[in-house]
Specification:
alpha+beta; about 450 residues; about 40% helix; five-stranded mixed sheet; 12 helices; single chain; seven-stranded mixed sheet
Length: about 450
Amino acid sequence: MKLIKKKTGDLVFSFCILLFLCACSTSKYVDSSGVVFTNGFYTTRTSQGIPIIIKQSVHDVTNATIALVFFHNVQDMSKKDVMLERECFRSIEKSLRTKVQPTRLYCKFNYDYSVCLLTAPVENTYDTLFDTASCFLQPDFSVRDERPEKMNDSSLPHLPPPELAALNVVLQEVYQSHPYSVLQNEEGKELAPDFVGDELYAYYMQSLLHAQNMAFVLCGDFTGVQAARLVMEIERMCKTVLLEHDSMQSWQDKPTITPPAIIPGDTIIVPGANKPRYVYATFTVPQYDDEDYIPFAFATMYLNDMLQVTLVERNMTAQSAGIGLIGGTGVTGILSVNNCTEKRLDDCKEQIEACIRDFPSESEIDELLVEYKRDYIRKLVRSTEKTDSECLKIIESACYLKSEQAYTARIEKVSQITAAQIKKAAITYLTSEKMHWYMVE
């Protein structure tokens, strides 16, 4: 199948690359305080061993973002632990909304970490930091909603309720007897148990507020003097709450979760989801730090366009179709087709398999490779334009690439990708016979 992408100007593309390279170039900045920024980063630890990462923002100079990250090991967590942690973060979020009134705030529960992230005007950085750290370290667990809001749960994508319920059924199947199973539930809905404040406080203090489980990440147009003061204040506030810990374990030392084994060739009819109907396929993918990951990401971009053209636009077989990733450090690929209109879901599956078989040749890939690289790089640039999104990029990079600065090297790697690498990744990972198919009706 020959894909057609709209051409864009080389000048715009070159300008995007220049902006990103300027933001991520190797350099050191030393001001009168002696604080050193390398590649725009300043990294240190509190006396208790809590990592502090401060990133100078070159794009967003009007806002500053502070994030507190808790890294959890799902292998050691029960379902009750998961619910307690989510409820703790609801209380933190409520405290922040009441006390700080930020420009942007959300609490994000992920497979391998939880994060509370707050953005406010940069001129209010210090006052905001003090109030934020107070809410982070001493949240008010007595303030409870009768009907608590659903927290942003990154272990599931943002989908309409029927699609979310269908996907949840599949995830229960995928993660049977796997550590990520504790993040799934039988109803496809988030549970809201009536934990009392004392129980939440005890869990928070005993299980979350450990120096080796935490990190502070800040992003803004900070000078070295400001960075030094931020570190000093975080140190002071943490000492009032946290106990000393001998462990100096880094967040990069957290155990990596092995993704579930995918048994190919089986098609499972999964009952229990309401109409409309869905087709899913799970498959093994390269992990985030593997050499094959970027070529694989490009292969999925090509296949996504093919699925969109064939199933949605031409045949009108489905409302949407595409490929994504599930999991955290142990990541798995998932192909999803929503709202299938075919009488037989097998017919929909056959159309998907035809797209996979018709994956472009190396010469066809090469024809559009510059366009796809432009798309990929634009996404990288956009992810650093705001302090909150760059803060999340730093956290993801530290968790999945074992370095908070690793994401800054992506653009160089993207520029070196070849059509041969993409084709090899497609053959290796995007093969129907290696997928496990789920029909949800």
